């Protein structure tokens, strides 16, 4: 289903004269972000550079969004539809009115099988998007106005001192559920799934000021996996190939630890390994700076999750190799080599921490974390 959605969207845009692009690398030289985290990231120059020659474009972009805190790396544990590494369909329109852009946005949903009656929309209160939606046949009861960023954004800022836009968020209502407020939508994530945005990019931030840009336009983004979730009526980790990866990890953890891992743990392991594999496959290696540090952090967080699930520190080579064979078969040897080298470095660090604890059992865990990067949850295994 995921493959069919991508092919359908790209063919739809090719037939309408859009220029199609291949996915850009995950690790980007954009100084405002570490990774390509949205489809607009490689195309910011189309909007902001005076000498650019923008044109309507479309692509399916590999994206990575990882937070800074340990808890943020655990999102997949509590959210069965979350993935740090995902694919997003994106497109850009120029020399286009709000109404024409809105109609195009709605037509795409209908093209992939989502009728307008099943959609709800949030719009900023100071734009013409609400009027455009009504003119395109959307019932007013399905449009919700917001005046600040909270559960849903009414303003997007693409990086520090970067592009600024306002626009529509499209939300799918399972079973055509009806509500009368934004809060009801936000408090019912099983009934309402955010699936896409249409953003009018109109300016750029310079400190507290917003200045005009050379080429105003519209940015569209839709999560491909999100669309598959809706069209198939399943959670993310029930979709192929996610379910196959979950089953593989469950089998290996059962062999290693002698017990079944919980679904949250399985999702975290799959989420981490998919991100790690993608970054290694693109040439990134673990280190202590920028993107390299994120990869190191992902590997060590994964190892911690695995070891805690089986109650001991043990080599992960077999589980990593088996996962890579299924996930990135052409890069199995490379992924396994890079991962195991980093695991060995981490195990040396753990041994140092063990020796420190043996000499000073009452050591403040925060000191161990700050000096060696060993979180308190691992202390029981040391």
Characterization of the model:
This protein has 382 residues and is of the alpha+beta class. The chain has two domains: 2-234, Bira Bifunctional Protein, Domain 2 (BirA Bifunctional Protein, domain 2, 2-Layer Sandwich), CATH 3.30.930; 242-381. 42% of the residues lie in helices and 20% in strands. Strands 1, 2, 3, 4, 5, 6, 7, 8 and 9 form a nine-stranded mixed β-sheet that branches. The protein is globular and about 70 Å long.
CATH architecture of the largest domain: 2-Layer Sandwich
How do the helices and strands follow one another from N- to C-terminus? Answer: HEHEHEHEHEEEHEEHHHHHHH
CATH superfamily membership of the largest domain? Bira Bifunctional Protein, Domain 2
Looking at CATH, which topology of the largest domain would you report? Answer: BirA Bifunctional Protein, domain 2
Summarize the structure.
This protein has 382 residues and is α+β, with helices and mostly antiparallel strands. Helices cover 42% and strands 20% of the residues. The chain starts with a helix and ends in a 10-residue tail after the last helix.
